[in-house]
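Q: what sequence does this backbone want?
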């Protein structure tokens, strides 16, 4: 049950905070998030897409929002970008079983083009409204390494002026985890124009994730 109800999730200061459960556990959070009306995005999305992974995960990877396939299946990073991420993690030496994957925003925001639903970047109000879920996940998980995938996640968690391209692959101090690393979102690789550009972008993503592997190997 939510801590309290709000009358209108489209008010000037929408927030998911009233819908958080009293007991912060991953199962309780996931169940409560399924009924979140903290902002208007729930109206068009198929379902809430909460994070996935073990409570014992030592690394948390945070993206922007679920895509079309994630929205339909109800699990994060199961579409084309998720396949890229899985390959990059494996090549970097990060055990996928040690990872918890989630997003800043838990509902799919899109615009319709015919029968297609095209990803639309969440705005600052929507991001702020959904952050209590991510904050609760991090509070429960207490990860050793926090990985921000893309600018939306990095700026939401590491500061609005954070530049992924300037600081990617570097170890960033944060109170949210023992270590933090930012890199590009795997979907950016799919947007490259040529196979050579895609291969180079994947190589760079793997290099950033190797930094994560090294941090996980530290005693």
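A:
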């Amino acid at each position: 049950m939510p801590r309290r109800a709000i009358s209108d999730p489209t008010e000037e200061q929408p927030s998911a905070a009233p819908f958080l459960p009293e007991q912060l556990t991953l199962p309780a959070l996931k169940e409560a998030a399924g009924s979140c009306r903290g902002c208007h995005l729930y109206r068009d999305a198929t379902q809430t897409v909460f994070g996935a992974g073990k409570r014992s995960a030592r690394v948390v990877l945070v993206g922007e929002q679920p895509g079309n396939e994630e929205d339909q299946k109800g699990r994060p990073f199961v579409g084309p970008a998720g396949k890229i991420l899985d390959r990059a993690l494996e090549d970097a030496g990060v055990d996928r079983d040690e990872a918890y994957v989630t997003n800043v925003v838990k509902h799919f925001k899109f615009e319709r083009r015919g029968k297609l639903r095209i990803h639309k970047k969440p705005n600052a109000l929507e991001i702020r409204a959904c952050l209590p879920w991510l904050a609760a996940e991090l509070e429960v998980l207490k990860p050793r390494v926090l990985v921000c995938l893309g600018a939306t996640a990095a700026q939401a968690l590491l500061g609005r002026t954070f530049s992924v391209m300037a600081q990617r692959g570097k170890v960033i101090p944060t109170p949210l985890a023992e270590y933090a690393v930012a890199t590009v979102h795997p979907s950016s690789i799919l947007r490259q124009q040529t196979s050579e550009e895609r291969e180079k972008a994947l190589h760079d993503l793997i290099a950033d994730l190797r930094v994560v592997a090294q941090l996980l190997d530290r005693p």
